[in-house]
Amino acid sequence: MADARRAGAVVWLTGLPCAGKTTLCEAVAAQLVARGERPVLLDGDALRRGISADLGFSPADRATQAARVAFVARCVAQAGGVALVGLVSPYDADRKAARAAVARFLLVHVATPLSRCEARDVKGHYGRARAGEIAGFTGVSAPYEAPDDAEVTLRTEASPEQDAAAIVAALAQRGWLGPA
Amino acid sequence: MADARRAGAVVWLTGLPCAGKTTLCEAVAAQLVARGERPVLLDGDALRRGISADLGFSPADRATQAARVAFVARCVAQAGGVALVGLVSPYDADRKAARAAVARFLLVHVATPLSRCEARDVKGHYGRARAGEIAGFTGVSAPYEAPDDAEVTLRTEASPEQDAAAIVAALAQRGWLGPA
Fold it and tell me: S-S: B162 plus which of A66, B74, B144, B158, CB 3.0-4.6 Å?
């Protein structure tokens, strides 16, 4: 029973497109690996390729996507790993349903202001959304419901490493990680 | 780094409906837990509820289902757990694609003869398939391609505990489990 200490947990990062969710997930993963944990990155793009190629970005499809992701994340936590979910997940109800499906759930609001997300626009999506070429784009033509129940809120003004350390500390504080 | 020993693996049980896949998964899970491992059961019904409510049983839908299941199983293995997949998965190509997606993959053919599966018929599906009420039912109105690449083949004539022990031994033999 060498591994009973391993609680398993789900870290769910919500925020606008280009808020820096995946960058943060990667920084958290690096810090968790250094602690001997087993992080599993579940970012929106990988998830769409892996389990949700059939889904678009309507509210109903986003709800289905969030439910499927919660299922995968719960399996990872059950295996003793730390699921790092980076998903716009703009609707409060979808996030609350994910929380209800998972035992140890840490909601992180990656609260980068819209102007900064749009200035980054890594994939040119904001530009295309402003031009009317992408419908239902969160922050431009679809709403983002900021969470009122986030355990951690980050404005991403610090370095990703500092923000990641805050997330890891929040996990450790709850007893969801093994000894460092 | 308390957990570097934990390899993570995927056990993929294929076989006809009512072959006894889920029963076997549960017996394997119990033995793995007793060894200090972290098994995660992924049986067809749970997976359909969790990630594939949209899919039916056409060959194309079965291929999509197998690919999604492989994605989830890989995440479990990455977290250091042992994914126990019980899925009819009647097509060789789908199983080989799953194998290609996963590093440590053990294919188990639950080779209960059709007559015995049909005699069990826990949910009455064979009866309905014979009556023409269910189309594309594996073993009756859709093919089952027996694997030529199974690491373990079981005719389920022994007890589930004995069969499960054979699967656990195959995992241990490959160095995919921690010390007992």
Answer: B158
CATH of B9-173, one of 3.40.50.720, 3.40.50.300, 3.40.50.1970, 3.40.190.10: 3.40.50.300
Q: Check if A180 contacts B (Cβ < 8 Å).
A: no
Q: Which of B3, B71, B78 lies at the smallest CB-CB distance from A51? A: B71
What are the tens digits of pLDDT across the range A40-69?
A: 999 888 898 999 999 999 999 999 999 999
A37 touches chain B (CB under 8 A): yes
For residue range B59-75, what is the model confidence (pLDDT) as tens digits?
Answer: 999 999 999 999 999 99
Comparing CA positions, the residue from B125, B123, B119, B112 lying closest to residue B154 is: B112
Find the catalytic residue in B89, B115, B141, B159: B89
CA nearest B78 in A: which residue?
A: A40
What ranges do the domains of chain A cover?
A: 9-173
B29 touches chain A (CB under 8 A): no
| Region at B71 (left for phi over 0; alpha for psi -120 to 50; beta for the rest) | alpha
Q: Of A120, A122, A118, give the one whose Cα is nearest residue A140.
A: A118
Q: Which two tokens stand for residue B59?
A: 């060959």
Q: Which helix (DSSP H) or strand (DSSP E) does residue B72 occupy?
A: helix B59-78
pTM over 0.90: yes
Residue type, A86: G
The answer to whether A58 is a known catalytic residue is no
